[in-house]
Every structure is written in C-alpha cells, then in structure tokens.
Amino acid sequence: MKKGAKSKVKVSKAIDSKEMLLAMEELEKENGMEPGSLMEAIETALVTAYKRDFDSTTDNVKVVVDKETGDYHVYVEKEVVEEVEDDNIQISLEDAKKVNKTLKIGDTAQIEIMPKNFGRIAAGTAKQVIIQKIREASREYLFNEFSDRKGEIVSGLIQKADGGIVVVDLGRLEGVMPLKEQVPTESYHVNDKIRAYVLDVEKGAKGAPQVIISRAHADFVRKLFELEIPEIYEGVIEIKSVSRDAGSRSKVAVYSPNENIDPVGSCVGQKGIRIQNIINELGGEKIDVIEWSEDPATFISAALLPAQVLAVDIKEEERFAQVIVPDDQLSLAIGKSGQNARLAAKLTNWKIDIKSESQFRQILAEKQNLENNDSEENEVVENNDVQEENN
C-alpha cells in the first residue's frame, strides 16, 4: 500500500531537541554503539509509552524522531476504506481526503497526533528505556571486546580477595579468578596489581559480561613466553607444548626450524635474564625449557631433565615409552610425588614408565631365568616322550 501524506500538528518540545541529539551522539561513542542506534531506541520507547498510557492495543502507532532537529512526531497509520469497520485501524476516504487529497482506497493515511500530556509521559518513559538500551548495548560491546581478548594477558588491581574468588578491576569490567584458577603458593591482597590469563568470557544471569581469569593455567606461561621473548612472538621460535604444576614447576618445549637458532638459549637469554623475568612473574616457579624433537625417544629424554637418561624403548602403537636411568638418577627422574615424570608425560603426550638400571637388569635376569626354566621343562617333556616311544 502507498504511504499517504502526514497531517501537520504542533511539534512536541517536551525533550530538549539539541541537548538530546548531542547526548545521543556522545553516549553512542562512549559505549561503542552503532550511530543512530539510540535514535531507534527512542522511537521504540515512545511507541511503548503511547501504548501503555493511552491503552492502545493496535500496532499502527508510529513515532518518528527528526534526525536533524530532534523533534518527535506521533502518527497513527490507518487504511483508507469505503466503509469503516474498525476506526482504530481504518479511515473513510472522505476523512482521508482531509489529511491528503491524493489518497485513495487501499492507501495508508498517516495521521499525526499529540495526545494531552504525552510529552511529559514520553520523556520519563523514554529516559528509562533509553538507559536500559544503553546498558544492554554497553554490555554487548564489552562482551564482544573481551571475547576478542580471550587467550590474552590482562592486568588490573585486586578489588576483593577473601579466601574464595579473587575479583580484579580490569577497567571497564571485573575479572573473576575462581579458586581452581589461583596458584596455591600465591597470596592475593586488595589493591595488589596482578597479571592474569583471560580464560573465558561469559554472560551472567542478567546479561552482564563476566571475564574468567587464571594464573594457574598452562597457557598463562605460554603467553608470558610470547611477551618476554621476541623470537616467539615473531614466530621464529615455536612453543610446541607446555605442562605445568602451578606454583611449583613448568616444562616448556620449544622448536625452531632455523638450524642457526638455539631455541632453548634464546628463551633463557643472556645470563638467564629472559627466563628470570618469567620466573619472577610466576613467583619463583621453576621452569624447564626443553628443545622439542620429532624423534619421540629424544624428546622424552629431554623432557625428563634434569635427570639423565640411558635408554628409551618406544612402542609407537601404544604411545608407551620404557625409560632407563642410572640408579642415582631414579628419584630425580620421577621427581617429588612423581611430579617430573607426570609433567614429562603431559608435555610429550606419551605414557612413560621409568626404571633404574639395576631394576631393568633385574627384570632382564628374571625374564632370562623364566625362559631358561621354560626351556628345561620343554626338554624334560621331550625326553619323556622319547622314552615312551622307545618302550
């Protein structure tokens, strides 16, 4: 249907036009909103206000805000018909001609109205809805912004630390560090400045974005290496894998396709200054930097450092490795509470069984004795069979 001309009535000045336009532009910029989105919100708010306060149940009410002056106009759209059956949505041709002489049957007449006291009512209602729209837009903007920062390191001041979750002021949002993402050996105090890894960004019950941060995650160590070591950030050196026992020890496997670059030496830095900066950030946590190798036996041997390895027996299909170490290196290879072996297994993604040289020799001896016994038993059986045949 064609749109008809709009009838002219006095424009409402209930909202200061210039002030409103300037305020909208400023709010849109501050909240990262699309230009014109607040204008749409205001028009929606005014329609809502009209329907609520004037008991309108039809959907033919339209509010348009002049984008130049900020003045707003309320229209009722009615279909031009020969015989009116519902005057809420229909208008006779005779009455339509009074609005616009060019209207004909089937057209839509837009009749501008300004109900008594609507300006005052609209101003209050619009303000509330606009505030809500701004809040929603701001939340959505912040959610998207921090979603893009997922996997990065952020810094802020601790606002709350009561033995449970730690809340960190990240500027426009708060970061929440659950107990499981905290380092057991660290203490957190209000107003302390800390850095943490953005683990996830979620929407809360009311739609407010919530940033989950971590200092215990293995990728926190990975990101610290990227920040501290330019060769990793530039892609000259690659971090292949990281395993971590937060607060105690981490193992980092690094690799460079350039044979002229020492990946381990580059990460450690001259006089250990590069790795020391990372250790300081982690509160003294020990870090083993290991050169990655595509040969599983070589990689597993390196992963068990600082222990020395005599031999590695690989079973590819099971991804299982039997490791032999000198007798005096067994406890070092396994580590306190199995930590070194556990971190090496996680770093390499192989199952690792560690035996001392003496243990391995004993196993071989027992195996040899078992084979000898089996051989003797077989020989006795054969002799008995021969005797029975002779008889």
Give a verbal description of the structure:
This protein is an alpha/beta fold and about 400 residues long. The protein has four domains: about 5-145, N Utilization Substance Protein A, Chain:P, domain 4 (2-Layer Sandwich), CATH 3.30.1480; about 150-215, OB fold (Dihydrolipoamide Acetyltransferase, E2P), CATH 2.40.50.140; about 235-290, GMP Synthetase, Chain A, domain 3, CATH 3.30.300.20; about 295-385, GMP Synthetase, Chain A, domain 3 (2-Layer Sandwich), CATH 3.30.300. The chain is built from twelve helices and 16 strands. The chain has helices at about 15-30, 35-55, 95-100, 120-150, 220-230, 230-235, 265-270, 275-280, 295-305, 330-335, 340-350, 355-390; strands spanning about 5, 60-65, 70-80, 90, 110-115, 155-160, 165-170, 175, 195-205, 210-215, 240-245, 250-255, 285-290, 310-315, 320-325, 350-355. The strands form four sheets. Strands 1, 2, 3, 4 and 5 form a five-stranded mixed β-sheet that branches. Strands 6-7-8-10-9 form a five-stranded mixed beta barrel. It has a three-stranded mixed β-sheet with strand order 11-12-13, with helices on both faces. The protein is elongated, with a radius of gyration of 38 Å. The termini are far apart. Residues about 1-15 have low confidence and may be disordered.
